[in-house]
């Protein structure tokens, strides 16, 4: 009997998420339209809308006229119903973004890190967040949480894989828990590529998709996978290492021990090196501006990098399609939009794969919609995704922390 009651409670939480996600994606909607869209009973919808309205997450935005009877009340997500922070850092740069639950950026700070030491970085992060809360007059109790991303992989919230694009000296440091203790707010930890994929699923090119692969082009190459509407992390939390797909068996050596990995041909670091930056480990916004300017000027060095990167990415996309048969592959990361579009144009047309005959209205490869702030924006979506998006496994969990 206790199990039945627990499952009923989880079902109510699942239904709330279904309603909240429906309103987020399709608003403005009336109660009747939400009922039809979700298949839930009218009384259930009425109860849930009452709870969400009382919590400040849903608001009435207008009354529609033109039909018989009393005009229906339209409902929408209340942007002021909650706020999230997105934090990304690596190689001396800290980026913090404050967004509301509708995805609007309310504040942004890009800072040079005073130190790469873990405690110093987290102290600077906590101070930046506190200053934003005061500046924007946002109460801490309205903050759903803080998303934290870093270009590395994690196991049990600790860094376990450190490549040349990750922060040195952080292995096994309890990153999430340490920042959570300093802030007194929930902290969710993710690698930058998976966070970017979640951001595209909520607010970008993946809004209407359930199964897609995301290729993240940053200082290195990462990837995020969405299967059946949920991010897939693999058996050991290390899925999406697309940068280490071998695209040339006799190619350039890679720190992972293989040769010819995708990351050796298509990263932003290599674009900067092509433009004469021999260091190119740090990717700042002025570096991205340089790449965009080089494209606008028709710089032969950048065009050569684009051609080489496109050739390698073309092979990677076909591998991904043949392995996963996604609805599409989204190409994104921190590249400026014109450069990203130029890269997509060079990758197409794609060779034959299992996805060749997919629906005509779903291209095999599309450019991401989130821009150079993708790491922090993706981080900011983590608490929203955690609180809004329905997950079937919630119906069967016995210990679930209620977030909404």
From TrEMBL:
Gene3D superfamilies linked: 3.30.420.40, Winged helix-like DNA-binding domain superfamily/Winged helix DNA-binding domain
Classification via PROSITE patterns: ROK
InterPro entries: ATPase_NBD, ROK, ROK_cs, WH-like_DNA-bd_sf, WH_DNA-bd_sf
A matching Pfam family: ROK
PANTHER family named in the record: BIFUNCTIONAL UDP-N-ACETYLGLUCOSAMINE 2-EPIMERASE_N-ACETYLMANNOSAMINE KINASE, ROK (REPRESSOR, ORF, KINASE) FAMILY
Family affiliation: Belongs to the ROK (NagC/XylR) family.
Identification of the protein by name: ROK family transcriptional regulator
Organism, as annotated: Bosea eneae
């Amino acid at each position: 009997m206790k199990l039945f009651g627990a499952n009923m409670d989880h079902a109510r939480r699942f239904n709330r998420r279904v309603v909240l996600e429906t309103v987020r994606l399709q608003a403005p909607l009336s109660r009747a339209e939400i009922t039809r869209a979700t298949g839930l009973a009218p009384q259930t919808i009425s109860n849930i809308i009452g709870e969400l309205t009382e919590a400040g997450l849903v608001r009435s935005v207008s009354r529609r006229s033109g039909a018989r009877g009393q005009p229906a009340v339209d409902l929408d997500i209340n942007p002021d119903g909650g706020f999230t922070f997105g934090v990304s850092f690596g190689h001396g740069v800290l980026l913090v973004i404050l967004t509301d639950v509708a995805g609007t950026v309310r504040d942004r700070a890009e800072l040079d890190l005073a130190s790469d030491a873990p405690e110093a970085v987290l102290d600077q992060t906590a101070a930046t967040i506190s200053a934003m809360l005061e500046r924007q007059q946002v109460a801490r109790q309205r903050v759903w949480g803080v998303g934290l991303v870093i270009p590395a992989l994690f196991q049990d919230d600790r860094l376990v894989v450190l490549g040349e694009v990750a922060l040195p000296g952080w292995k096994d440091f309890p990153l999430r828990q340490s920042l959570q203790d300093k802030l007194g707010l929930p902290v969710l930890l993710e690698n930058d590529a998976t966070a970017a994929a979640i951001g595209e699923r909520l607010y970008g090119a993946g809004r209407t998709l359930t199964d897609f692969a995301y290729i993240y082009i940053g200082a290195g190459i990462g990837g995020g996978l969405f299967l059946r509407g949920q991010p897939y992390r693999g058996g050991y939390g290390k899925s999406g290492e697309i940068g280490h797909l071998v695209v040339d068996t006799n190619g350039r050596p890679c720190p992972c021990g293989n040769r010819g990995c995708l990351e050796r041909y298509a990263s932003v670091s290599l674009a900067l090196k092509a433009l004469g930056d021999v260091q190119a480990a740090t990717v700042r916004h002025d570096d991205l501006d340089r790449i965009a300017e080089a494209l606008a000027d028709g710089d032969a060095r950048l065009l050569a990098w684009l051609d080489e990167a496109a050739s390698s990415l073309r092979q990677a996309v076909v591998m991904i399609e043949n392995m996963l048969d996604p609805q599409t592959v989204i190409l994104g990361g921190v590249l400026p939009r014109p450069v990203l579009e130029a890269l997509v144009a060079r990758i197409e047309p794609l060779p034959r794969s299992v996805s060749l005959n997919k629906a005509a209205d779903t291209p095999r490869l599309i450019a991401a919609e989130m821009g150079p702030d993708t790491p922090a924006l993706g981080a900011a979506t983590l608490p929203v995704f955690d609180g809004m998006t329905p997950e079937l496994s919630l119906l069967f969990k016995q210990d679930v922390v209620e977030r909404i």
